[in-house]
Amino acid sequence: AQTVTQSQPEMSVQEAETVTLSCTYDTSESDYYLFWYKQPPSRQMILVIRQEAYKQQNATENRFSVNFQKAAKSFSLKISDSQLGDAAMYFCAYRTYNNDMRFGAGTRLTVKP
Amino acid sequence: DTAVSQTPKYLVTQMGNDKSIKCEQNLGHDTMYWYKQDSKKFLKIMFSYNNKELIINETVPNRFSPKSPDKAHLNLHINSLELGDSAVYFCASSRTGQGGGELFFGEGSRLTVL
Q1: What is the mean pLDDT of residues A47-71?
Q2: Confidence at B97, pLDDT banded by 50, 70, 90
Q3: Cis-peptide, bond into residue B61, ω within 30° of zero
Q4: pLDDT tens digits for A75-97?
Q5: Is the distance from CB of A58 to CB of A66 less than 8 angstroms?
Q6: From CA A83, how far away is CA A49, in angstroms rounded?
Q7: Taking 80 as the threshold, does the pLDDT of residue A34 lie above it?
Q8: Strand order in the sheet with B4-7
Q9: Burial of residue B90, with CB atoms counted within 10 A of its CB: 0-12 exposed, 13-18 middle, 19 or more buried
């Protein structure tokens, strides 16, 4: 079964600075999806960004971008110009085409004013 | 108009009781899921249904029984509740296969077993 590893239980960043959250995964599949979800204290799961494995170009969504290294099975999230509202738990997730979706253990991001 | 809705949002009950959590999605998705999030925030998949058929059943105790009356609903019934069942339970839905993409989550149901 595939596994997702987030090696940073906690990270902190100064407001307006840039932070990178790490994620690695293990799979024997060649086609799959990768995601970053954000969970603020409200506990709602919010999609931040997604990446299809067959696409070489890294996904970007405004201040959020990923560094997808398929051979290394690495999928890091970069948050630029960090804002206080970015403070949350961030989960990396992997999904196969047959609907099996697994999450990493999460990284708690603190943003310091 | 909530895409994935769960009820109840909060549930407090005694050990040994039986309880249910309901989930409905209005996105037209064909796949629905139940995840359990423990106190350490770890999200663990429990079940997944595709077109009312069970496709993923992780090592979950038999006390947990999902039921999918139709594609838009996936309910979770828990018998003989134990202290360790206390958690937040998330329902989610998605489309199948390539192009299916992300999961859409409900707001979660916090279950507290006393």
Answers
A1: 94
A2: low
A3: no
A4: 999 999 999 999 999 999 999 87
A5: yes
A6: 17
A7: yes
A8: B4-7, B19-25, B73-78, B64-70
A9: buried
Percent of chain A exceeding pLDDT 90 equals: 83
What residue spans of chain B are helical by DSSP H? Answer: none
Map tokens 């309880």 to a residue: B19
Burial class (CB in 10 A: 0-12, 13-18, 19+), B52: middle
A-B C-beta contacts closer than 8 Å: 59
User: Inter-chain contact A45–B105, Cβ cutoff 8 Å?
Assistant: yes
pLDDT at A97: 77
B62-91 per-position pLDDT tens digit: 999 999 999 999 999 999 999 999 999 999
- The answer to whether residue B16 scores a pLDDT higher than 90 is yes
Nearest CB among A47, A89, A105 relative to B102 is that of A47
Task: Name every chain B residue with its beta carbon within 8 A of the beta carbon of A4.
Answer: none
Best to test chain B binding among A6, A46, A99, A107 (most B CBs inside 10 Å): A99
Chain A residues within 8 A of B43 when measuring between CB atoms: 91, 103, 106
The answer for residues whose C-beta is within 8 angstroms of residue B69's C-beta and 6 or more apart is B52, B75
Task: Identify the DSSP state of B97.
Answer: S
